[in-house]
Amino acid sequence: MFYYLINVILKTTLKVAYMLKKLCFIFLVLSSIKSVADDSVVLQLKWQHQFQFAGFYAALEKGYYKEQGFDVEIRAHNKKTSPVEEVLSGRATFGISDSSIVLHRMKNKPVVVLASFFQHSPLVLLSLSSSGIRSPEDLINKRVMYQKGIDDAPLTAMFTTLGINSEQYTHVPHSFNNETLMNGEVDAVSVYLTNQPKWFADKGIEVNIIDPINYGVDFYGDLLFTSENYIQDSPEKALAFKEASIKGWQYALNHQEEIIDLIINKYQNKLSKEHLKFEATHTARMIKTSTIPIGTTYPERFHRIANIYRTLKMVPENASEEGLLINDYMTQAAEKERELYYYLLFFVALLVISLTFMAIFNKRLRRLVKNKTVELKLTNNSLASKIEVIALQNEALQIEKLNAESASKAKSDFVSNMSHEIRTPLNGIYGSLQLLKQESLSEKGIELVDNAISSGQSLLVVINDILDFSKIEAGKLTLDIKPFDFVKLLEITVNNIKHIPKEKAINFSWSSENMHSYWLGDDIRVKQILINLLSNAFKFTEKGKVTVTCEERLVSNIPNISIQIEDTGIGMSESNQQTLFSRFEQQDSSITRKFGGTGLGLSIVQSLVHLMGGEISVQSTIGEGSTFTVLLPLEKTEQVKETVIEIKAPDLTGRNILIAEDNRINQTIIKTMLAPCKANIIIADNGIEAIEKHNSHEPDFIFMDIQMPVLDGISACQHIRVTDKTTPIVALTANVMTNDVERYLASGFNSHVPKPTEQVMLFQVLNEFLS
After folding, report:
1. Contacts of 366 (CB under 8 A, 6+ apart)
2. DSSP state, 562?
3. What is the pLDDT of residue 456?
4. I need a labelling partner for 162 at 20 to 30 A (CA). Which of 28, 57, 194, 384 fits?
């Protein structure tokens, strides 16, 4: 039933996200129809008119461009220039290029790919069958004719993959004359697989084809592109042109005869109809409409192509293809209320997925460890008498240990990443609620906001429980030992949580008579033990009472803090008590449905108690209730001196605060939270911008996010610290793992504030560094 509920939640979330996506797309399309009306544009082809460009002819002839408001001129190739030069000079609006467009982008030419029509490059090498040349290795010490510089990338990549360097064959500049191969002037020539083999076949000449794709080099063929300026000025027009072109290609491939006649009659193509049919058939294979939607582009594939260019040393190692695809420039804009609902839906789905994944992962990991343990025992028993085999077995055990450590690290990385991804949208929600509470609201509104804040705090408790669980399993949870007043801590804890039994009409009492007040220990973790046990008691008690008794008890002449929490709740069977402190355990699925919870609370309590050297036990009867007893062997100490500091918004009139944050929602929330300080707020969207605004504005204080585009927060901080050693820089981040915080402090940050952010925490660090 639990997995069924997960499935329902995921399906509902996906449906809502899909509907919102469709609404945004319809809005963009409707606005684009209006904005591109009567827009005259030029489409620059990369070769002469032929079926290679059939989809664009069809889009023009069938009025698909006109429907989108375009008046299109299709120009054939000009040998004196290139499509990239034509588009960047403004003489053409759109162009057709092959995968060399990636190289142009990496050489800082502002071109942007809209769609891919040829999923594979048609560029191949062709040799006469009579030559016996059938593979790239056969071209060693031979003459090879191709365009060197840009169009040769698939061929050069193929040679490099096979370990063949340019000195092992002779390059001949391309003459674009097929007779060159027939006359024996060269041994192989580069051709387009879609049409040129037909020319040789018509003359009865048998040839061999050497295709780079057969050697692991798979580049895109024809790509539709435009300039970066056009994308930034008219993104909706670029999308409209792309959609019309895709529609044209769909028509052309389904009506090949009609488009072939159009090419012959309108574009004066001198090739025969039979030749164009051959080209149409092979073009359809390159486009692969049966398996891939026309126009589809895959960012990872462009990344692989870019890596090939780097490997071939055609560009520097640090050359970037960022900004190559139109998707890099598209942003989503929605109303705040709809965006909030979207984040909430996404957050619920993400939380359920992460918890489910962790549960499945742990279950499989336990089963794997159990199976491996059994196998190792059997192996050791059977090989006990063979010393050499025992040595091999020890080596295998070492490998298993490394694998287990790797799996544990992968899980820790996953938990850390999930914490960051959950805290980031939660910061927007929780921060907005804090600010909304300061507005003038009705009583009902105040109640709703308080409920939402309480829910957000509960959600943060769940996230922190998951982080504590990860730290405990990794053995990285440590205690912060210092003097504290246990009696006062108990009083504060009870006051914070006593509204729960009041709402449920449960009798609640507590006592700490004859209890020594001052002890050495981690007061935060002791409070966490109290809250988890009390929350558990309140959750499973519908009527009756909950009683807390705290006293000092000697165990083996060692003073202990004894905490006993008794309830009249649902109780537990003996079998359930045996698994009570296990991860993700509940009594049964009905308990989970009725009372909820992650199943981590009591497991974390047990781990904390054991970390303090203490013990925890439970006595319970079904239908009568449960009693939890905790013994903590802490050391007594003298009275704790307390300093109460009232945290107020500092008056920073005339001072500059720089906020480096890429999330627009978080920018608004932090800026609003800091409004009472009356400081001049400066916003930077990424690390590079943060460095520039630091240099131009000389801020008095910097809040720096860690995960930002272009340049991350750590790198930006280190760059600033080269020239500025004094300005306080505080990491404002959703990364809260201990090792992350230590890394920030070692990188030059003065402190850190976690997300979700409390307004008072911002005031506290400002008071600390700017008082």
Report:
1. none
2. E
3. 60
4. 194
Q: What is the mean pLDDT of each run of 10 residues along the chain (771 residues)?
A: 51 54 50 56 92 94 94 90 92 92 92 91 89 92 82 80 88 87 91 84 88 85 93 93 95 92 85 85 80 87 87 86 87 46 68 74 79 79 69 70 60 57 65 69 70 60 60 68 91 88 91 89 91 90 93 91 94 81 53 52 86 92 92 88 74 94 91 93 95 95 93 95 95 82 93 88 91 70
Cα 552 to chain centroid, rounded: 51
Q: Distance between CA atoms of 52 and 283, rounded to whole angstroms?
A: 7
Q: How many angstroms from the chain centroid is the CA of residue 691?
A: 25
Integer angstrom CA distances of residue 110 from 45, 104, 304, 318, 321: 18, 8, 20, 17, 10
Question: Could you tell me which of 229, 269, 230 has the C-alpha nearest to residue 41?
Answer: 230
Rounded distance, CA 263 to CA 283, Å? 15
The burial class, CB within 10 Å (0-12 / 13-18 / 19+), for 360 is: exposed
Asked if residue 662 lies in contact with residue 734, where contact means CB atoms within 8 angstroms, the answer is no
Q: Cα(64)–Cα(36) distance, rounded to whole angstroms?
A: 13
Output the pLDDT for position 592: 46
Q: Which amino acid is at 57?
A: Y
Q: Residue 257: CB partners within 8 Å, gap ≥ 6?
A: none
Pick from 19, 58, 47, 206: nearest CA to 122: 47
Can you tell me the distance from the alpha carbon of 645 to that of 246, in angstroms, rounded to the nearest whole number?
Answer: 66
Q: Which residue has the tokens 């700017």?
A: 770
Determine the pLDDT at residue 179: 87
Whether residue 40 contacts residue 365, with contact meaning beta carbons closer than 8 Å, is answered with: no
749 contact partners, CB below 8 Å, separation of at least 6: 704, 717, 729, 730, 731
CA distance 188 to 114: 34
> What is the structure's pLDDT at 144?
94
The token duo for 606 is: 């047990």
Angle (CA) 480-486-488 rounded to 5° is 120
How many residues are given for the chain? 771
Using CA atoms, how far residue 749 sits from 445, 646, 656, 729, in Å, is: 39, 25, 18, 5
Q: How far is CA 415 from CA 358, 410, 466, 638, in A?
A: 9, 9, 8, 40
Question: What does the pLDDT read at residue 56?
Answer: 96
User: pLDDT at position 473, please?
Assistant: 62
Would you say 604 and 464 are in contact if contact means Cβ atoms under 8 Å apart?
A: no
Within 10 Å of residue 41's Cβ, how many Cβ atoms? 17
| ω into 83 cis (within 30 of 0) | no
What crossing angle do the helices spanning 601-611 and 443-474 adopt, rounded to 10°? Answer: 50
SS3 258: helix
pLDDT score for 661: 93
Sheet holding 94-97, edge to edge: 70-75, 39-44, 94-97, 223-227, 111-116
The pLDDT of residue 187 is 94
| CA dihedral sign of residues 119, 120, 123, 128 | negative
